[in-house]
Amino acid sequence: MTIDYDKAKRDIDLERYIIDTGLYRRKNSAKPNPLIEVGNPSNEIHIYKGKRTGHWMYKDHKNNDAGSIIDFIKKKQGKNEHELLSILSDELGILKSNPNYKAQKATPNVAQQENKPFSYPFPLNELTSSPLLTVERKISPETYNNDIFKNTSYNTKIKVSNGNTYHCIAFPLYHIKDILSPEKKIIGLERKNGYIKGKAENSNFSNGIWFSNANTDKPFDVIIVESTIDAYSHFEYKNITSEKKDLVNNPLYISLQGTLYNDKLKDLASFYQKYKSDINSFHLANDNDIAGHLFSLNIASELGFSDYSFSISKDGKVSTIEFKEGDKDKFLKTLDHISEKLDSISISKNSNNRFSASIEDNNKFTFNTNIMSYKLLSHLFINSNNLDVPHLKDAKGKSNLKLKDWNDLLKYHKDGIRETKKIKHKF
Fold it and tell me: What gap in Å lies between CA 360 and CA 42, rounded to an integer?
């Protein structure tokens, strides 16, 4: 894959991209700057355009960090080289499909923009077949045509900059309050085909989620995932593997669509409280990477699936966990246990695995950002019956591949391939 890095730095609206990650949001101000970290508003970053290069740049004064979109993806999101190329390819694909996307998304008054009624110029037809799902993603038609997913995704078209139109899949976005509501209103679309990935104009990704159908005549099982394709993959994998003992009887899939803004987190907590008596089980099945564990940890704390109340945030190579409520002595002992566990892992022996208390606030603890720290935090801080992470075990019961998401796991199971382009790291 070849990427024009100069074009990516110049053309991709960095502010819009950062907000779309869910890691930062705008302050309550008419000005677009600064952005504040979700869950840690004292951390601010400023976005500006280099006069000489024309590149969009960010500056984090507090942490003495600065750079382009490439630096943000590597340092703030912790992505590897392959993931970087994939993200840039997707973003540049968005620009190709809609050349005005950047200017529209850069509008400072985001609240006013998101209140605009959403509309789409092409009809949304029932999803009945898709080469993207069956060939590339290895998801069978029996899965996406199942009653659980019926009329929750669509076949439609996308228009690109040269005026041509192409067939694609569209995943509709709704407010969380519309889950189980007979009257639900689409507030955005995510569109995909084999070459183009993009969000339809005026889509509200700050609040938007996708969800499947559920039979409300009996208790249902909520499964949180990061994408619609993860929902399909999770459902099919659980149905075709020996893990049927873990299969939920009446699933309601909720996809975060890759973002977890504070408003979305609060709305999810309100949904849980409203339907708590109707929910049989609640599963956090986000991706097996740092961002996925970060989502699961914050959801678990907000919804009460942990012995403690806390918040966790990531800023490049440094992450912070803030204790709020619970048995603090037990909380500290758990952090010490994680440090000892990391010390015992050879890959971490040359790094500082301590959780360091902040001088300004003794309830905040910083630690090195790495996948093993986040995996241990998830497994020790989230109730085991709520955590459902994609993983593959060998004959000895040890995880031998780093599988990012449920689709990776489904493809591995079907293809019998030890490693693919998306499965690179062993641990």
Answer: 12
CA 20 and chain centroid, separation: 10
Rounded distance between C-alpha atoms, residue 15 and residue 26, angstroms: 9
**Alpha-carbon span 77 to 210, nearest angstrom:** 23
The string over 349-367, giving b where at least 16 C-beta atoms fall within 10 Å of a residue's C-beta and e elsewhere, is: eeeebbbeeeeeeeebbeb
For residue 412, which amino acid is it? Y
Looking at per-residue pLDDT, the higher value among 96 and 247 belongs to 247
Tokens of 296: 């699961």
Q: Do residues 38 and 128 make contact, with C-beta atoms less than 8 angstroms apart? A: no
pTM for this prediction: 0.71
**% the chain with pLDDT above 70:** 82
Share of the chain above pLDDT 90, in %: 40
Q: Specify the higher pLDDT residue, 316 or 284.
A: 284
> What tens digit of pLDDT does each residue of 3-18 get?
788 888 988 989 888 8
Over residues 155-169, the pLDDT tens digits come to: 999 877 667 788 889
* 229, 212 contact by CB (below 8 A): no
| 118 phi and psi angles, rounded to 5 deg | -85, 140
Higher-scoring residue by pLDDT: 195, 180: 180
Per-residue pLDDT at 109 exceeds 60: no
Lowest mean pLDDT among 115-129, 172-186, 201-215, 310-324: 115-129
Please compute Rg for the chain using Cα positions. Answer: 21
Contacts of 98 (CB under 8 A, 6+ apart): 161, 198, 201
Q: Is the pLDDT reported for residue 255 higher than 60? A: yes
132, 140, 357, 401 from 417: Cα distances, Å: 19, 18, 44, 11
Mean pLDDT of the chain: 82
